[in-house]
UniProtKB/TrEMBL annotation:
InterPro entries: HTH_MarR-typ (IPR000835), MarR/SlyA-like (IPR039422), WH-like_DNA-bd_sf (IPR036388), WH_DNA-bd_sf (IPR036390)
Highest taxon of source: Bacteria
Name of the protein this chain belongs to: MarR family transcriptional regulator
Domain HTH marR-type: 17-152
Pfam families: MarR
SUPFAM superfamilies: Winged helix' DNA-binding domain (SSF46785)
Lineage: Bacteria, Bacillati, Actinomycetota, Actinomycetes, Micromonosporales
Amino acid sequence: MSTRGPARTVRWLNPDEERAWRAFLRVTVAVQAGTARDLAAIGLSEPDYEVLSTLSERPGHTSTLGEQADKMGWSRSRLSRHATRMEGRGLLRRTPDPTDGRGCLLVLTAQGLDALKNAAPAHVESVRRHLIDRLAPEDLAAIEQIARRLEEPKPAAASDAGSP
């Protein structure tokens, strides 16, 4: 008896789809590697920057660990370990969550806010250099359109048929 479930027909990528997929991967890796390298040069990782920037936008510069993990697409345990390292560097602090006895709040410290303020100009320049300034306005609009489409829930019928 097989434990792999019913056999499915594989819809292999045609040459155009294969080229698009590989191009997407190359661009994603190149842009992320460039911005990560530039952030590392100023002492932050991409996750550090995302945590700092999203906390700076929150009321009281505070978020629950769960909300932050969901925003970053991380597990709570992974973010908790990362927050421990950031806390050790003085960028944030953790406090008990008054609404969840098992949870905690991540709070941006003054040192963390200063690190973000110092990093933001270099980061936006990096984003411009690696992506924005290399594309035409219609390219940027196409990226937005693609992102919106990929963020939409996929209807069940479409996933079975494999259509967008």
